[in-house]
Amino acid sequence: MHKGLSIALIAVGIALLILGYRASESLSSDVSKFFTDSPSDKAIWMLIGGGAALLIGLFGLGRGGTRSN
Protein backbone atom coordinates (compact mmCIF):
# COMPACT_ATOMS: atom_id res chain seq x y z
CA MET A 1 0.00 0.00 0.00
CA HIS A 2 1.31 3.44 -0.84
CA LYS A 3 2.31 5.67 2.03
CA GLY A 4 0.07 8.50 0.82
CA LEU A 5 -2.97 6.24 0.69
CA SER A 6 -2.25 4.99 4.21
CA ILE A 7 -2.01 8.54 5.53
CA ALA A 8 -5.25 9.47 3.74
CA LEU A 9 -7.01 6.45 5.30
CA ILE A 10 -5.77 7.45 8.74
CA ALA A 11 -7.06 11.01 8.23
CA VAL A 12 -10.44 9.79 6.97
CA GLY A 13 -10.66 7.31 9.85
CA ILE A 14 -10.01 10.00 12.45
CA ALA A 15 -12.54 12.32 10.79
CA LEU A 16 -15.20 9.60 10.72
CA LEU A 17 -14.56 8.72 14.36
CA ILE A 18 -14.98 12.36 15.37
CA LEU A 19 -18.13 12.78 13.26
CA GLY A 20 -19.52 9.49 14.55
CA TYR A 21 -18.97 10.54 18.14
CA ARG A 22 -20.63 13.89 17.50
CA ALA A 23 -23.55 12.14 15.76
CA SER A 24 -23.95 9.83 18.75
CA GLU A 25 -24.42 12.91 20.94
CA SER A 26 -26.99 14.55 18.62
CA LEU A 27 -30.70 15.01 19.29
CA SER A 28 -31.76 12.29 16.85
CA SER A 29 -29.37 9.87 18.48
CA ASP A 30 -30.74 10.83 21.90
CA VAL A 31 -34.26 10.02 20.68
CA SER A 32 -33.01 6.70 19.33
CA LYS A 33 -31.28 5.97 22.65
CA PHE A 34 -34.51 6.72 24.50
CA PHE A 35 -36.53 4.18 22.49
CA THR A 36 -33.94 1.52 21.60
CA ASP A 37 -31.19 2.09 24.19
CA SER A 38 -28.60 2.45 21.41
CA PRO A 39 -27.35 5.38 19.30
CA SER A 40 -28.61 5.96 15.76
CA ASP A 41 -27.51 3.67 12.95
CA LYS A 42 -25.71 6.56 11.25
CA ALA A 43 -23.53 7.15 14.30
CA ILE A 44 -22.75 3.46 14.68
CA TRP A 45 -21.75 3.05 11.02
CA MET A 46 -19.58 6.17 11.13
CA LEU A 47 -17.76 4.83 14.19
CA ILE A 48 -17.30 1.38 12.62
CA GLY A 49 -16.14 2.84 9.28
CA GLY A 50 -13.78 5.26 11.00
CA GLY A 51 -12.23 2.53 13.11
CA ALA A 52 -11.79 0.26 10.10
CA ALA A 53 -10.23 3.00 7.95
CA LEU A 54 -7.89 3.96 10.80
CA LEU A 55 -6.77 0.37 11.34
CA ILE A 56 -6.23 -0.28 7.63
CA GLY A 57 -4.26 2.96 7.31
CA LEU A 58 -2.09 2.12 10.31
CA PHE A 59 -1.52 -1.41 9.00
CA GLY A 60 -0.53 -0.05 5.58
CA LEU A 61 1.82 2.47 7.16
CA GLY A 62 3.36 -0.20 9.37
CA ARG A 63 4.02 -2.57 6.48
CA GLY A 64 6.29 -0.05 4.83
CA GLY A 65 6.49 1.13 1.29
CA THR A 66 7.62 -2.11 -0.31
CA ARG A 67 6.11 -2.87 -3.70
CA SER A 68 6.66 -5.75 -6.02
CA ASN A 69 7.20 -4.68 -9.64
Shape descriptor reads elongated
> Which percent range fits the helix content?
over 70%
Task: List segments where confidence is low: pLDDT < 50 over at least 5 consecutive residues.
Answer: none
What's the order of the H and E elements?
A: HHH
Q: Which structural class matches the secondary elements?
A: mainly alpha
The whole-angstrom Rg is 16 Å
Q: How many domain modules?
A: 1
Mean pLDDT over the residues: 85
The description of the largest β-sheet is: none
Helix run count: 3
Distance between the termini: 13 Å
What report would you give on this structure?
This protein is an all-alpha fold and 69 residues long. It has one domain. Helices cover 80% and strands 0% of the residues. The two termini are 13 Å apart.
Keywords:
69 residues, mainly alpha, 3 helices, 0% strand, elongated
Summarize the structure.
With 69 residues, this protein is mainly α. It is built from 3 helices and no strands.
Task: Map the helices and strands.
Layout: H1 3-24, H2 27-36, H3 41-63
Helix pairs in contact: 1-3
